[in-house]
Amino acid sequence: MIEFKKVTKTYQSGKEDVHALNGIDLTVETGEIYGVIGFSGAGKSSLIRTVNLLERPSSGHVLINGKDISKLSASEIRKTRKDIGMIFQHFNLLNSKTVFHNIAMPLILANTPKRQIKEQVKELLDFVGLADQAEKYPDQLSGGQKQRIGIARALATNPSVLLCDEATSALDPQTTQSILELLRRVNREYNITILLITHEMGVIREICDKVAVLEAGKVIEQGTVFDIFTNPQQPTTQRFVRSVMNDELPESLLKKIRDPNQNHTIYRIQFIGASVGQPLMSRISREYNLDLNVLFGNITELQGEPYGNLIVEFNGPAREIQKALADIRLNEVQAEEVRNYAS
Ligand SMILES: Nc1ncnc2c1ncn2[C@@H]1O[C@H](COP(=O)(O)OP(=O)(O)OP(=O)(O)O)[C@@H](O)[C@H]1O
């Protein structure tokens, strides 16, 4: 479990103070995969650096499994570091050392007996799928393989927490996918709590249980991935969600909606989970004698649950439209007028 309590971080830049973190309150429960997303300069790196013991917060507290790590002595920091694994965007491997040696490094530093190092590194190489690459050097491997070594190295000290700093940002989409799958296995099979920072909403959708959106050093929105993706409140969150949900309305449609001379009744209908499979709209059309014109639609999956999104024009008497919308909402399907979406 990782807890941030009123954490601030202020840097001195010449004569100016830069307030990188402005009172972060965040709890990552044990066993969760928690993603923090934000644009460049939002404070993501500053946040993760307060957990990996490279920076102390200017004020506030960071607790790992109940222990306040912002107050540790030097020797306690060394001990606690073993409990916190970290992987990086550019892997941070030693190019002059073999794959075996890179993974063994934290164990060598902890004076682990040679035999035990051999056994542990072998097990880790098997786990990350690189059993036959032990004697290679990092330069001989692909980006995805390098990140697998980074993950194996981070696991060597049996940490309870893994921090991921833009771990897939330097990788192509297919490799990103395989690394995210490996991180999910790390979480499930080793029961390691994962805190990741990223600027890619696709990464959050793929593996996170919860997400916090960071802006100007503040958490502006947080919640389960499902809730944030289906009902984002803040404009920045909405931008991130739209970047991956592919529900941007085409320009021609926006023009139509915005036209003040046309009196449209256009709604966004959101189907979640079991409701996706229902033939709801055809029943509504028949029962209320309405013409329904589907202008736009897509269906996707969020945390294993289907999620559908339709933009529908309702044509018919206003009273019948209102009754139809009430009926739709009774089916636990959200219906929201599109006007504010289009403005
Ligand atoms: N060592 C430092 N000295 C002075 N200012 C800093 C320092 N590190 C970060 N900052 C400033 O703090 C703010 C937050 O930076 P941070 O690197 O934490 O954001 P970020 O979300 O990780 O951005 P990016 O995605 O670009 O890495 C920025 O305004 C940055 O310029």
Automatic annotation (TrEMBL):
Keyword rRNA-binding (UniProt): no
SMART domains: AAA, NIL
Species in which this protein is naturally found: Metaplanococcus flavidus
InterPro entries given in the database record: AAA+_ATPase, ABC_transporter-like_ATP-bd, ABC_transporter-like_CS, ACT-like_dom_sf, MetN_ABC, MetN_ABC_transporter-like, NIL_domain, P-loop_NTPase
MF terms (GO), sorted A to Z: ATP binding
Ranges where the ABC transporter domain occurs: 2-241
Highest rank taxon of the organism: Bacteria
Protein name: Methionine ABC transporter ATP-binding protein
Entries under Pfam families matching the protein: ABC_tran, NIL
Stored PANTHER family: AMINO ACID IMPORT ATP-BINDING PROTEIN, METHIONINE IMPORT ATP-BINDING PROTEIN METN
Keywords assigned by UniProt, alphabetized: Amino-acid transport, ATP-binding, Cell membrane, Membrane, Nucleotide-binding, Translocase, Transport
Keyword check for Membrane: yes
